[in-house]
Specification:
Blueprint (H helix, E strand, L loop, with lengths): L4 E5 L4 E3 L3 E3 L3 E5 L4 E4 L4 E2 L4 E4 L2 E4 L4 E2 L4 E3 L19 E3 L4 E2 L4 E2 L4 E2 L4 E2 L4 E2 L2 E2 L3 E5 L2 E6 L11 H6 L7 E3 L1
Parallel strand pairs: 1-4, 2-5, 3-6, 4-7, 5-8, 6-9, 7-10, 8-11, 9-12, 10-13, 11-14, 12-15, 13-16, 14-17, 15-18
Antiparallel strand pairs: 3-20, 18-19
Length: 171
């Protein structure tokens, strides 16, 4: 147990950047050769789960809303039958990405910088930067209009704005 995070796994190859905000009930799970990397100024809101058998890499200035599950392990996440890879395939989420609540991000997914994902989506595949994704399975529904990268958010600022209200600040 680290703050509000729970780690489940055989190894502890987890890197969390500075000034991250970790919500209650966040779960980090790695396998024997799994690696989780979380960039600076990233929000993992309540109940998020990162599952890595190989690699789950989250960029800087990313917001994963509550209930988001990111997994590189096909056995650990339900994907919608569009040729989901078998076994484990790395997941890479670029910088400045916003992911809506209760979204599932499956093996082999690559989200380009500035991507916005609607809530309750199931994402699998490779997507370019600055797109808006939604649906089950998620598809591109236009260009994402994201604000410019925000300055680093300190825990006190986040709480004042209602972000990660019960979160633990790391960094």
């Amino acid at each position: 147990m680290f703050g509000n995070m729970r780690h489940v796994g055989l190894c502890l190859d987890i890197t969390i950047g500075s000034d991250c905000i970790i919500g209650p009930g966040v779960r980090l799970e790695t396998g024997r050769s799994g690696t989780i990397i979380v960039g600076d100024d990233t929000l993992l809101d309540a109940g998020c789960a990162l599952v890595a058998r190989r690699l789950v890499s989250i960029g800087s200035n990313v917001a994963l809303a509550d209930g988001v599950i990111v997994s590189d392990d096909a056995a650990r996440i339900r994907t919608v039958g569009t040729g989901a890879p078998r076994g484990s395939t790395a997941v890479v989420i670029g910088d400045n990405v916003l992911v809506g609540r209760n979204t599932r991000i499956g093996p082999g997914t690559r989200l380009g910088a500035g991507t916005v994902v609607a809530p309750n989506s199931v994402v699998q595949g490779v997507f370019p930067p600055n797109v808006y994704l939604c649906g089950v399975p998620a598809t591109v529904h236009g260009t994402a209009v994201t604000p410019p990268p925000r300055p680093p958010m300190r825990a006190s600022t986040a709480h004042r704005h209602g972000i990660g209200r019960h979160a633990h600040h790391v960094g």
